[in-house]
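Crash report, auto-generated. Payload:
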Amino acid sequence: MFMRLALAALVVQIPVLAEAAETHVVTMAASVYHPANLTARVGDTVRFVNDDGTDHGVFVPTVDFALDLGTQKPEEERELTLLKPGTFDVECTFHEHMILKVEVVP
Amino acid sequence: MKAPVLSSFLGAGALIAGLILAGPLVAGPERIAFPENFETEWVLYNQVDRADRKRVRFIYVKPEADAEAKPGQPAPNGTVLVMADRNAKVDADENPVLDADGRMIPEGDFTAIFVMEKQEGWGESVGLEVAPNGDWDYAAFLPDGTLNPETNTAGCFACHTRRTGKDFTFTYFQNVADRAK
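Recovered output after restart:
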């Protein structure tokens, strides 16, 4: 009986481990977010890496997700942990054409 | 010989009268009124977490102009936007405390109130020392409603010129578009 319960617990845990939180890297070289579209799960983290030679930023204008991570100098990194599902845009504070679309799924 | 003198006098008079009718000559924060009762009577349309400054920014729009706003179009003349800052709650290590959705938690009263207002022709009277921002002008107020003497609004112009494709606004143009979807 004990062995049977233990096996059942193992079976349940396998999919949980498969969905462990991930870190998604977004770069900024040549004033372009790469990738330009990102799908992530609740609990994941997005790491913004300024691998460009000029200042950039991470600004979200979307209601309920809006934030500003401040000026990001070359070689600096910022992280954003995704805690709720939804879709939002990321814009560079300095460069209007830099846009990243993020979809957060449960 | 007297006619030209009279003509010049009348011309100067007409010019002065025209300038008076055109409104205040002084561009800048002095021509923007403190937005009385914005917290209770205006539309709160966004809330921006500014983690690096440990501030939560509440963004309001004056309802009369907001009712005329159309997606994809510049904001109507008479639009007034307010960005009012409150401090964010921090932990023992001075890091912002987040709620279950990952949002910063505001606490205390407003610490600063920034206003941008758009009126027809205002862009023609701003000085060359600031970046062109259409017909927008800017002011920074202290919580008591007086102008903040330490704020140079040239910085407002410089920052907002990065959003020429969104009528010089970081949130409002996008908000009008998003709510129409």
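Post-recovery validation: The first strand of chain B starts at residue 43 and ends at 50.
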